[in-house]
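Sorry to interrupt, but I need a hand with the structure work. Leave the record below and I will have a look:
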Amino acid sequence: MEAKYVALNNKEHKNVRIKDVQNFEEFSKEHMAPLMVQEFMPAAASFPIIFTKDPNSGVFKAVALFALKPEANQFVNKGQWTARYVPMVLRGQPFIARENEQQSVMIGFNSNSSLVNTTEGHRLFDDNGEQTDYLKQQVSFMGKLAECHHITAHFIKQLTDNELLQQKVLTIKGTDGKDHKIQGIYTVDEERLKNLADDKLLMFAKQGVYGPIYAHLSSLGQVDLLMK
């Protein structure tokens, strides 16, 4: 079912309850998910990390790749998550954080999620309409996720400002013996990275840019995990 995110409030949602994520079946058709730069290191051992470009806005984002084609996820098996790492955006479900015009974080949730109901799980508000401890924890996590998003956007801007993202076609030999091409992805151009001016290289080193870059590049070796 398509996600439907609504802004959270203590009047309309006073009876809403959220079940813990024990079954990942609703993500079984998600072939990618946004990834924060802070996650690159632990995620690199589990799945490929690539960059995609919105054809309308031209904005790049980093994503974890779960399958070679849409409507599939190689890391969900009978509702169980089989990879070592679970991305933050999945751990935060069914909640979502968005900034309003005043740049304050607004919390919403996917009302179509199987985790949302009125009988089982954690209450969001108590009888007085105050946030429960559970909701406070989720709000804190969403705030952290929003902060990570800003840092990730800055990291990607550094890559694009220095023209380090190159469009790439991955050619993978499938189990049928045929070559399969994956298009529309971007990776960091190592040669261009090496040829940056010394002052830029030093700045990258001081700002810790190299860690996530090389985590991304090493993660590309995990593409074979998507060929199951």
Q: What stands out?
A: Residues 45 and 223 are 11 Å apart (CA to CA). The chain has a mean pLDDT of 90. The longest helix spans residues 133-161.
